[in-house]
């Protein structure tokens, strides 16, 4: 897919507004020959150290002088992404890019096209390209597709939810398949080995995620029976804890045998919690 990879301009950073000049982008072109492509989020480390996150690569990066930007071809290996991700790219939902790169801060203040900046990014060294990022620093860096399909339905809320779930610690999930490894943040990779999130990032039980996990645990085709049994025990323990502390919003579940009319309750809760994913 053709894409706008990075642009000249002023962009907000935690330490101030950064100016990314075209001369520095031109000098960085040769570093685009190495970068790999990752999906939906930047790696937790400053640079890409986990090769299991790689889903493709960049080719034929070139500078567009008229528009002050770098264009290139983004090649994605279909075997390394889900059909939903590819559908999202074609639907224009996962089309935003975000470059991961190193640079030197030159604290020279100035102004570019009426926008003041605090420092200049020099000696740019590109490391990777994240595709499908919900909130990139520059929303005008996007992919184009040659087979756009407007009838593909992708829930944008689910895109945000996926990014949030990827950031959760392992302890937030009811089951984690064996065979993965830990990244620098102590989270299992690949993330696809983690199933049925039911706690938030602070380790607290999340009502909507717990209800959603209970509804999906028996339907999961990726969990072996042993994994389902262990997940049910963990989820039902969470239900008991929740119900003890929240008498006004108790969770009723057939999985845990807590009520006879649990199916109607669960379906209504699922509808309210739509967009949650595992």
Number of helices: 6
* Rounded average pLDDT: 82
How can the largest sheet be summarized? 8 strands, mixed
Distance between the termini: 28 Å
Order of helices and strands: EEEHEEEHEEEEHEEEEHHH
Explain what you see.
A hairpin with a 2-residue loop joins strand 8 (110-112) and strand 9. The strands form 4 sheets. Strands 1, 2, 3, 4, 5, 6, 7 and 10 form an 8-stranded mixed β-sheet that branches. Strands 8-9 form a two-stranded antiparallel sheet. Strands 11-14 form a two-stranded antiparallel ribbon. It is an alpha+beta fold and 278 residues long. Helix content is 24%, strand content 29%. The chain folds into 2 domains: 2-131, no CATH class; 156-272, no CATH class.
Descriptors for this entry?
disordered C terminus, elongated, 8-stranded mixed sheet, 278 residues, alpha+beta, 2 domains, 14 strands, 6 helices, two-stranded antiparallel ribbon
Helix and strand layout, with pairings?
Blueprint lengths: L1 E6 L1 E5 L2 E5 L1 H6 L8 E4 L14 E11 L4 E8 L6 H8 L6 E10 L3 E3 L2 E3 L1 E13 L24 H11 L6 E4 L4 E2 L5 E2 L4 E4 L9 H10 L8 H21 L16 H11 L6
Parallel strand pairs: 3-10, 4-10
Antiparallel strand pairs: 1-6, 2-3, 4-5, 5-6, 7-10, 8-9, 11-14, 12-13
Give a summary of the structure in a few sentences.
It contains 6 helices and 14 strands. The chain has about 280 residues and is of the alpha+beta class.
């Amino acid at each position: 897919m053709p894409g706008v990879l990075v642009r000249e301009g002023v962009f907000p950073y935690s330490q101030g507004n950064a100016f990314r000049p075209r001369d520095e982008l031109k000098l960085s072109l040769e570093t685009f020959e190495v970068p790999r492509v990752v999906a939906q989020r930047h790696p937790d480390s400053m640079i890409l150290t986990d090769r299991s996150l790689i889903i493709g690569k960049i080719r034929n990066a070139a500078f567009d002088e008229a528009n002050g930007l770098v264009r290139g071809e983004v090649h994605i290996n279909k075997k390394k992404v889900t059909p939903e991700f590819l559908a999202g790219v074609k639907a224009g939902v996962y089309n935003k890019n975000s470059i991961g790169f190193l640079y030197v801060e030159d604290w020279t203040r100035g102004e570019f096209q009426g926008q003041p900046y605090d420092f200049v990014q020099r000696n740019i060294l590109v490391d990777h390209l994240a595709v499908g990022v919900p909130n990139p620093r520059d929303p005008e860096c996007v992919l184009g597709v040659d087979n756009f399909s407007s009838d593909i339905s992708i829930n944008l809320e689910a895109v945000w939810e996926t990014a949030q779930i990827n950031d959760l610690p392992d302890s937030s999930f009811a089951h984690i398949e064996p065979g993965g490894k830990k990244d620098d943040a102590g989270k299992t990779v690949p993330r696809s080995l983690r199933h049925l999130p039911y706690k938030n990032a602070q380790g607290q039980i999340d009502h909507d995620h717990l209800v959603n996990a209970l509804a999906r645990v028996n339907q999961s085709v990726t969990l072996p029976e042993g994994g389902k049994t262990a997940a049910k025990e963990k989820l039902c323990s969470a239900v008991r804890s929740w119900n003890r502390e929240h008498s006004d919003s108790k969770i009723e579940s057939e999985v845990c045998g807590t009520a006879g009319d649990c199916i109607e309750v669960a379906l209504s809760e699922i509808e309210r919690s739509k967009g949650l994913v595992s």
